[in-house]
Amino acid sequence: MIQKFAGYGFNKSHAAAYAVLCYQTAYLKSHYPTEFMAALMTTDMGNTDKIMGYFTECRDLGIKVLGPDVNESQKNFAVADGGIRFGLAAIKNVGEGAVESIVAIRNETGPFTSVFDFCRRVDLRKVNKRMLEGLIKTGTFDSTGAKRAQLMAVLDQAIEDGGAAQRERELGQTSIFGEEFSDQKISGAPGAPPLPSIPEWDQAQRLKYERELTGFYISAHPLNRYETTIGALSTVTTAGLAELSDGKEVKLCGIIATVKPMLTKKGDRMAYVTLEDLQGTVEVIIFPDLFKTSGELIAPEQLIRITGVIDRGDKGTKLRGSKIESLAEVQKQTVKRVHIRLSDRPEASDQLLRLREIFQRHPGGTVVSLTFQMEKALEADTAPLPNLSVSPSEHFVSDIEEVLGKGALSLLS
Hints:
Layout: H1 2-6, H2 12-31, H3 33-43, H4 48-61, E1 65-66, E2 78-80, E3 83-85, H5 96-109, H6 115-121, H7 129-137, H8 148-171, H9 179-187, H10 203-214, H11 227-233, E4 249-263, E5 269-276, E6 281-286, H12 288-294, E7 303-313, E8 316-326, H13 327-334, E9 337-343, H14 348-361, E10 363-375, E11 378-381, E12 389-390, H15 394-404, E13 409-412
Helix pairs in contact: 2-3, 3-4, 6-8, 7-8, 14-15
């Protein structure tokens, strides 16, 4: 069978077609990276793992992925403002027909000024309450200046007002003060129903809703501030698992996305966990013994490090977990030295003063050393700084990277 297939499988015409396709896509990615990545995201809109990989690649390429916007988004992922705007059809409970209707109305009559204006102008037979909740929770109305919590609080009122306005239009009725006054009253201009004075949801709540409704964290990622830590404490990323052999032990840091608890035939508890890092996701099998010892860490939104063995089967690559640790605890126990790189640029003096302030804000038991790059081929390393030790938490790391940029700090065990 192999010999027969080899007679055709990669003949010259076949190889040439692959070569041309490879050249064309490489050319597009090189010269039109934003358009190319937007097209990839649209093509794989239903594949969460691939989209997550594209998000990471966009970040590496310096391309911003902008959240969904009622006045900017199209049906699919599209180029906007130098980045890629999230497509409305990628939000759960949002139908393509409804999105096409929204975009058509926006193109015909201009941008939406508020959720009241939106409900007054769109066809509420196509855009239902469930869809509106999804649009609000994913930040689609953020550009109108309202908080997501405020919009959810007035949603029923906005739908009622919009429905009443549409019934009047269908009957051919107008306000005695004229349509202009009526539009102003509903749209959010002076005289519109005031939004309640309530606090916005915290970031964790906002990210939770974004993940539930799109499969992704859009406005931020819980692991962003741990990126340096993850690089130091992991032996692989989810994207790199495919390159490793079956049965190899790995250490993988991430956030638990989902937990599916089960009972064995003996009645013992176990679970299938979806672990997510900045590259993608992987399913981890938690057997009863590990579940007993680490049950408190097996919950959605937990930041952990899992040690496990690669299990490659018919249904894809999984991990068989052998150890689960809190990411914060691993960081605290494992990191023995913080190493920071600086250059001899004019701003270095100011940077050193700011670094000293950060060191003082994060006291701990981990020593700090520096590398000064004075010329391209000349560097000077310091011994651990005397009378100074820090706590290498994610807040410490983010403070350092705010001053020096990513890549300037290393966590060493």
